[in-house]
């Protein structure tokens, strides 16, 4: 079975109750297909997060029912791994490294400036749904500190004064305006 054809990422914006029910139904079907397969929980959670955008308790219940697992087991895995989110996520995820090298070289100033620019706290999503701000203990770019990533792009030797320019690259195009 080709699981990639089943998973289509959706924007994490608001959708109607009917749309939510359709997504939950899809996740339930997916979970039932994986029922009884050893080690399938994490794979199903990844696919469900790709479909729904995040893993609120309602989605976790559907997965637990579909896989015939206790809800506590599903919730335990979701809360253990940092790549799963129980909160609505932004279209782009910003991760600021606060590992030792990045912290010493100004990682905390980057976080503070992003909090000001985005008007969010760490762990929150901007009101427009564009960004989620997170910190990480290490993103593997110690020699390039301070570093941060937006989605899969790593920014090295980040200067807090350049953050507005970096964020502007991710702003949606306005009609009639080139980026």
Write the layout of secondary structure elements.
Blueprint: H1 17-34, H2 41-52, H3 57-67, H4 71-80, E1 92-97, H5 100-104, H6 107-118, E2 131-136, E3 148-150, E4 153-155, H7 163-168
Parallel strand pairs: 1-2
Antiparallel strand pairs: 1-3, 3-4
Biggest sheet: strands, sense, closure?
A: 4 strands, mixed
Helix content range: 40-55%
Strand order of the largest sheet: 2-1-3-4
Structural class: alpha+beta
Give the rounded overall mean pLDDT.
88
The amount of beta strand, in percent, is 5-15%
Please tell me the total number of domains.
2
Number of E strands: 4
Distance between the ends: 40 Å
Instruction: List the secondary-structure elements in sequence, H or E.
Output: HHHHEHHEEEH
Overall geometry comes to elongated
Rg, Å, rounded: 18 Å
Name the poorly predicted regions.
Answer: 1-13, 175-179
Q: Tally the helices.
A: 7
What does it look like?
- It is a single chain.
- With 179 residues, the chain is α+β, with helices and mostly antiparallel strands.
- The chain folds into 2 domains: 78 residues, no CATH class; 77 residues, Glutaredoxin (3-Layer(aba) Sandwich).
- Helix content is 41%, strand content 10%.
- It has 7 helices and 4 strands, in the order H-H-H-H-E-H-H-E-E-E-H.
- A 4-stranded mixed beta sheet has the order 2-1-3-4, covered by helices on one side.
- A hairpin with a 2-residue loop joins strand 3 and strand 4.
- Helix 1 runs antiparallel to helix 2, helix 2 packs across helix 3 and helix 3 crosses helix 4.
- The radius of gyration is 18 Å and the shape is elongated.
- The protein starts with 16 loop residues before the first helix and ends in an 11-residue tail after the last helix.
